[in-house]
Amino acid sequence: MFPEIEFERMKRLPNYVFAEVNNIKMEARRRGEDIIDFSMGNPDGPAPQHITDKLIEASAKPKNHGYSASAGIYKLRLAICNWYKRKYGVDYLDPDKHACATMGSKEGYVHLVQAIVNVGDVAVVPDPTYPIHSYAFMLNGGAIHKFELTFDDKFKVDEDLFFERLQKTVDESIPKVKFVVVNFPHNPSCATVTPEFYQRLVDMAKKERFYIISDIAYADITFDGYKTPSIFQAKGALDVAVESFTLSKSYNMAGWRVGFICGNEKLVGALKRIKSWLDYGMFTPIQVAATIALDGPQDCVDEHVAKYKHRRDVMLECFKEAGWDMNCPDASMFIWAKIPEKARHLGSMEFSKQLLTQAKVAVSPGIGFGTYGDQYVRIALIENEKRIRQAARNIKQYLKSL
Fold first, then answer.
1. For the residues of 104-115, what is the DSSP string, one character each?
2. pTM score of the predicted model
3. CATH at 155
4. Of 15, 23, 37, 81, which is least surrounded by CB within 10 A?
5. Residue 394 is part of a domain; what is its CATH number?
């Protein structure tokens, strides 16, 4: 008999919590059941026409069908730096030194961690969190320290408490903390921070000698006057930080897999070097079209934001009528909803299963994002108004049955 082989790295990964709910969802659909799916942040509309037109045009050119540049073509890296200049007034990013195009922000993040983490390095990741923020470090031999991310009913982070907990974690960590991961607007919780938050974080990173990885994937999706800050608006950020973004949400380009990481030359250089060994970059026409997305008219982004805001407002209204009162976020394409009181004893996994089997509504259980997420579920604003209202009717009947 062939000897059993252990894959030690795979042992570091837990069972994927979301897979259990997803399996129930797929089995129900195979039985012909209509499932209203809020479980994944997968935009439901097409990419804007001017972007797809550029993709088609660039695809017709034979020269674009060869190997591309693993760090991204120059015009895309220039467009990335210009995006920061227009959006944040940040004019010091160099496309050759400080920018790397990636196959979505997830690939870039994982390869960055793979390039810069030594076995035993310590990273701080607030809880709850998007799972790959933690597991990229664990897969590459790093250690994770967590503390609870605390925010108010308007999803504003308690910044004083954040830094108090971060300082305590840094002071008590052996070995010393080497990386701190932040993600605002936050996935899954929709929590937001002020520009002053990043200046405090940069100042602390210089004092305590750690690097910052900032993820602003949902930077464009903001409502009610809120504007997402960037870490590069903070003085001295380039010395200690990198930041990632994706075109998936803003431009409905999730399947295109386009993102970027910018910032500290040493960290970005490490990412570029490892990518030069591992891939040849995105299909060049996709990079050309992504350049047009960043440099071109941004009306399409405004339209997408307006759509998510309308869906948010409809969901808050009709779910409240159904017996599920939720707080109102001012950023991201999700609602981080505390489980209704009469169902809170179930925990997020069982509650999600019951919503799926009894109300035909799929959401993401909060426990999948960390220990402090278990009283919540994450609801993605990816179904139209008619479907949202149908979900509310289904949920109303389910809650009555409890």
1. HHHHHHHHHHHH
2. 0.95
3. 3.40.640.10
4. 15
5. 3.90.1150.10
